Amino acid sequence: MRRRLLLALVAFGLACLSVALMAAYAQRADERAVAGREPVRVYVAAKRVAAGTAARALRDDGLADLVVMPASTVPADALTSIGPAIEALVLTAPVERGQLLMRGMFDRMAVVTGGLSVPDGMLAVSVPVKLEGAVADYVRAGADVTVFLTAGDPEGTGPSPVVSATRMATRVLLSRVRVLAVGVRPVGSEAPEPLDPNNSDATVLLTLAVEQDDAQRVVLATKTGTLYAALLSPDTWVAPGGRVDTDRLFR
């Protein structure tokens, strides 16, 4: 009798513990669901904002609005406030109206040299590309591009390989570089000369921000072959040094 009573008490205790654990789990699940639906105030662009605009101006000049969004839909990098840590930073590229503002869009103000904003520690180098090589004039200042070089492919090995006149190769010259300016700025003008989209032979000057080694490579490349630019999205990764030659074009 005493043994049956003890077993009954143990079973009752286990049942109560199970109920308590289930209730706690359900409560935590409810809390997580509610947290995902909690409103969060984040900044979005109120209008198109140019690159170089300070975060302080976005906040104080009505260039950005605080809107309410569910927490579960907001990226971790979204701007929920503009305080001392970020207000002196500037946009590194233009943003469109309604675009969510992210912390990664801002950086320190670059040094202005000769009328062009050049990032610290970088060189500004201009390279000529044909209109089709400038993505049909869709490349804009602030964009990131990959630069390809097409030139004669060296034949043989040794210190002085012969460059083939018929066998061509295209290589990745620069995996990702920032475009500082597009076109030529006439003397006394703040804007570059407009391009004629009907002229397929038009040459576009892309001014790129590069380090010294890349500057030397790209200057030499302009003398040895043809350059071609490709626009990049923020998440695009291009393997450095990739190449295709005429022997492997269809392989």
TrEMBL record:
Residues in the signal sequence: 1-23
Domain of life: Bacteria
PROSITE patterns the record matches: PROKAR_LIPOPROTEIN
Keyword set, alphabetical order: Signal
One Pfam family linked to the record: RcpC
InterPro entries hit by this protein: Pilus_assmbl_Flp-typ_CpaB, RcpC_dom, SAF
Domain SAF, first and last residues per copy: 40-107
Protein name, UniProt field: SAF domain-containing protein
Protein source organism: Dactylosporangium matsuzakiense
